[in-house]
Specification:
The protein is of the alpha+beta class. It is built from 23 helices and 16 strands. It has helices spanning 2-8, 26-31, 33-38, 158-173, 182-190, 208-217, 251-254, 292-306, 325-336, 344-351, 354-361, 363-382, 398-410, 417-429, 435-438, 452-466, 475-483, 498-504, 532-541, 553-563, 586-590, 603-626, 671-692, and strands at 14-15, 51-61, 70-78, 81-86, 96-97, 108-110, 114-121, 124-127, 138-143, 148-152, 224-227, 243-246, 264-268, 274-279, 313-317, 387-392. The strands form four sheets. It has an eight-stranded antiparallel beta sheet. Helix 13 runs parallel beside helix 16 and helix 16 packs antiparallel against helix 17. 44% of the residues are buried.
C-alpha cells in the first residue's frame, strides 16, 4: 500500500545521529589499506536479492568538501541496487530521529534510480556507457532522485575496478526484459512474508463493487453505470477490466474500435455535472482521417452524452490545445540539471545564473499551465454547470494529470491520504498510464523519461504548500511517493496497464495501494526552507514566470471571487497561479545539497521547539501540582528545552545538522546573513550545553 508500504515505510524510524566520523583524504587510504581490507562490513540483502560484483578500498567523497576527503569502504552491486558499505556505519548511534527509508539505505542506489554514470580520466569527466577500453580513477553517479555520489577507485585493485565499473554500467544501462526486473525475484522469495494491513481502505478499483461504491460516493449512479464488458480484457487490453460509462450508452458500442471513442466517467460534481475522458479513434491509414463508420459512431456517442439528462458537454482536446509530452520531457531535462550538483564549488559557480537557468527550463511555467487548465475545468463544472469531456490520443497521460488535479481541487476526500491513494489507483493505474515506458524502466531507448506523474505530484505540492490545512498528508508523503517510482519491489509503478500487470504479476506482489505506475514532478523554496533564502532570492522569483496566456474574463472572475473569500478547507480549493506563487519543491529537489539547508531553522525546527516547550510545561505543571511547595527544585530541569530542535534543518526530515557547508568560492551579498543563521544554531547548541552543566 502506498501509505504504509511506500510512504509510511520511509519514515518514522530512528536514523543515524551525526557522529564523529573519521574522514580521510585519498592519499591516506594507501597507508591504511591493510586495515581497510580486514574490516568486515555486512551487506543486508532483500529476499531474492543476489550479489553480482564488489570492490574494496573505495573512497566515497564528501560532496560539499570539493571531493578532497571521504569515507573508505566497499562498493557492491546487486541485482537490486548499488551500495556503499562504509566503515562509519557501525559508529553511528540511534539517538536522534530522522527520516529513514526501510528499504533503501542512505548509501544505496536502486539500479532503476541511476540516471547517468560518469568517469574521471586525468581530471576530465566523461559519460560512461558500453564496453570500456580504459577504466576511470573516479566514478560519479547521478541519480533520478537527484542524489550525486562520488567514488575514488585510485587505490582499488585493477581487477575489482573492472568488475565493479563494468557491472554497474551493464546492469543500469543495458536494455532489460520485463520478466528480468527484480520485483519478480523479490515476489517469489518474499511471498510468504507479504501481509496486507487490515486497516487499509484504499480502493483498488479492480472489482465492479469498487466502481459502484465510487459512483454512490459522488452521487453519479443516476446518470452513469459500471460495466464489466472488458472482463478478461476481451474488448481492450488498454482499459481496466471494469469502468463506468453513461447509462444510455448501448453495450454493443463499447466493444467497437477496441475501446477508443468511448466516454469514460472520471468523477461527478455535487451539482450533477461530470468529468469524462475519451481516447481518440484510430485514423484511417489511407487518408489519415476517420472512416465514415467511425464518424457515424462518434456522432452517436456525442448525441448520447448531449441529450438529457446530460445537457451541455464541453470538449477539451488536450492533444492539440495543451502541453505535449516532448514539452514535459525537455523542460524537466533542463530543470533537473540545476540540482545535480557535484560539489560546493559548482553550486556557488552556478548561483549567479541560477534563476535565468530556472526560467529557461520552463518547468515552473508548465506547472502553472497544468494548474490553470485544472482551474478552467473546475470553473466549467462548478460555475457553468456543464459536463467536461477530456480528449487525448490514448487518454492515459495528460487526461490522467488534469482529471486528477480537478478532483484534488474539488473533492476533499481526495485530499485525505486514503482518498489520494484511491485517486492515484483509479486515474493513473487503472487509467492505464504507461509507467514502464514513461519512466523508461527497461532502458529500451536512449530517450529520457517523461515524468508526467512527477509533474502531477509537483502540482499537488503547490496546493499542499499553499493550503496545508486542507490536506491529510504532508509534502514528505509526496516526496517519498516520488522516490518510490524507482524502487522495484512495488508493482504500482512498473507496468503500462492493468492487463500487463495481471498477465505477468502475482497479486500478492502488490502492496495495498501499489498496483500501477507513476511519474515525477517538481517545485522550489517552500516556506519552511525560507527566511534566509527567501530574503536573498524572493525578490527575483516574480520575474521567472511568463504571465502569457492570461485567464479569460469568466475564468478570471471565478478565480478572483474564490480567492477573495475565506478558504473552506473542506470544500473547493484553488491554487494561486501568479508567477511568484509557483515555487520550486525545495524538499524534493534541494534535500541532498548541504548548501541549501538552513541550519537549525525551518518550519520543522519551529514546530519541534513548540512541541518540546509544551511537553516541558505540562511536565512541570504536573510536578508543581504534586508538590506545591517545591517549585524551586524544578527550575534546574528547564534547560532541557530545544535539545532536539536545535539539530533540525530546513530540509527535515531528509537532513539534520550533519555538517556545516563550505563557504562559497564566489562572494555573495547574502553570505553574511547565512553566517548569522549558523551563529543562531550554534547559540542554541551552547544554550543546551550550558543547561547540561
Amino acid at each position: 500500500m502506498l501509505g504504509k508500504g511506500v510512504v509510511g515505510g520511509g519514515g518514522g524510524t530512528k536514523a543515524p545521529k551525526p557522529s564523529f566520523v573519521s574522514y580521510v583524504r585519498p592519499e591516506e587510504i594507501h597507508t591504511n589499506e591493510k586495515e581497510v581490507t580486514e574490516k568486515e562490513v555486512t551487506l543486508h540483502l532483500l529476499p531474492g536479492e543476489q550479489l553480482l560484483c564488489e570492490a574494496s578500498t573505495v573512497l566515497k567523497y564528501v560532496q560539499e568538501d570539493s571531493c578532497q576527503r571521504g569515507i573508505y569502504g566497499k562498493l557492491v552491486c546487486t541485482d537490486f541496487k548499488i551500495a556503499f558499505l562504509g566503515d562509519d556505519d557501525s559508529a553511528l548511534d540511534n539517538d536522534e530521529t530522522q527520516f529513514k527509508n526501510k528499504v533503501i539505505g542512505e548509501n544505496d542506489i536502486t539500479l532503476h534510480c541511476v540516471d547517468q554514470i560518469y568517469g574521471v580520466f586525468d581530471e576530465k569527466k566523461k559519460t560512461l556507457f558500453g564496453q570500456l577500453k580504459k577504466y576511470p580513477e573516479k566514478l560519479i553517479i547521478h541519480c533520478k532522485d537527484l542524489r550525486v555520489f562520488h567514488f575514488c577507485l585510485r587505490y582499488t585493485k585493477e581487477e575489482e575496478v573492472k568488475r565493479i565499473v563494468s557491472g554497474i554500467i551493464h546492469h543500469t544501462q543495458a536494455p532489460k526484459l520485463l520478466k528480468r526486473l527484480f520485483l519478480f525475484s523479490y515476489a517469489a522469495a518474499a511471498q510468504n512474508h507479504a501481509a496486507t494491513d487490515p486497516r487499509n481502505h484504499t480502493v483498488m478499483f479492480d472489482t465492479l463493487k469498487d466502481w459502484c461504491w465510487e459512483l454512490e460516493r459522488t452521487k453519479g449512479s443516476v446518470k452513469y453505470k459500471a460495466v464489466s464488458v472488458n472482463e478478461g480484457y476481451k474488448v481492450c487490453e488498454r482499459l481496466p477490466a471494469y469502468f463506468v460509462v453513461p447509462t444510455p450508452l448501448p453495450e454493443e458500442d463499447l466493444s467497437r474500435f477496441q475501446g477508443h471513442g468511448i466516454p469514460l466517467w472520471c468523477w461527478s460534481c455535487h451539482n450533477g455535472c461530470a468529468l469524462l475522458k475519451m481516447s481518440a479513434l484510430p485514423k484511417k491509414e489511407q487518408d489519415d482521417g476517420l472512416s465514415q463508420m467511425q464518424k457515424s459512431f462518434l456522432d452517436g456517442i456525442y448525441k448520447t452524452i448531449h441529450r438529457p439528462p446530460y445537457e451541455i458537454v464541453k470538449t477539451e482536446d488536450l492533444s492539440s490545445n495543451f502541453l505535449s509530452l516532448q514539452d514535459i520531457q525537455t523542460a524537466y531535462s533542463k530543470f533537473k540539471q540545476l540540482f545535480l550538483i557535484d560539489n560546493s564549488t559548482e553550486f556557488w559557480d552556478t548561483d549567479i545564473k541560477w534563476f535565468s537557468l530556472l526560467e529557461s527550463s520552463s518547468w515552473l511555467d508548465i506547472i502553472r499551465r497544468c494548474l490553470k487548465k485544472a482551474i478552467e475545468i473546475t470553473e466549467c463544472l462548478e460555475a457553468q454547470n456543464v459536463n467536461v469531456l477530456l480528449l487525448e490520443e490514448n487518454a492515459s497521460d495528460l487526461c490522467c494529470l488534469v482529471s486528477s488535479l480537478v478532483q484534488v481541487m474539488m473533492d476533499p476526500h481526495c485530499r485525505t491520504r486514503i482518498g489520494f491513494q484511491s485517486l492515484v489507483q483509479k486515474e493513473w493505474i487503472m487509467g492505464g498510464h504507461s509507467f514502464l515506458d514513461r519512466c523508461n524502466h527497461l532502458r529500451q531507448s536512449d530517450k529520457e523519461e517523461v515524468p508526467v506523474f512527477l509533474l502531477f505530484l509537483d502540482c499537488v505540492w503547490q496546493l499542499v504548500h499553499q493550503h496545508p490545512p486542507a490536506f491529510d498528508f504532508t509534502e514528505t508523503y509526496l516526496t517519498v511517493l516520488s522516490d518510490s517510482l524507482y524502487i522495484p519491489i512495488f508493482s504500482t509503478f512498473f507496468f503500462n496497464s492493468p492487463h500487463q500487470k495481471d498477465n505477468v504479476h502475482q497479486r500478492q506482489l502488490s502492496l495495498p495501494l501499489t498496483q500501477s505506475k507513476s511519474s515525477p514532478k517538481r517545485g522550489f523554496f517552500r516556506e519552511e526552507t525560507d527566511h534566509l533564502i527567501k530574503n536573498l532570492l524572493g525578490k527575483r522569483i516574480s520575474k521567472l514566470i511568463n504571465s502569457s496566456d492570461e485567464l479569460h474574463d469568466n475564468l478570471r472572475e471565478f478565480y478572483d471571487s474564490w480567492h477573495s473569500k475565506p478558504t473552506d478547507y473542506h470544500g473547493l480549493l484553488l491554487p494561486h497561479i501568479e508567477g511568484p506563487e509557483i515555487k520550486v519543491w525545495a524538499q524534493r529537489y534541494l534535500r541532498w545539497i548541504p548548501e541549501a539547508q538552513i541550519l537549525g531553522g525551518g518550519r520543522a525546527a519551529t514546530v519541534s521547539k513548540l512541541l518540546e516547550m509544551m511537553e516541558e510545561v505540562e511536565r512541570l505543571q504536573e510536578k508543581i501540582d504534586a508538590r506545591p511547595h517545591g517549585q524551586g527544585a524544578l527550575l534546574a530541569e528547564a534547560p532541557l528545552l530545544l535539545r532536539g530542535s536545535a539539530r533540525l534543518s530546513a530540509l527535515f526530515p531528509f537532513a539534520l545538522l550533519q555538517r556545516h557547508p563550505s563557504k562559497p568560492v564566489l562572494p555573495t551579498s547574502g553570505w553574511k546573513a547565512l553566517g548569522d543563521e549558523e551563529d543562531l544554531a550554534k547559540r542554541e547548541d551552547e544554550f543546551v550545553d550550558l543547561g547540561d552543566v
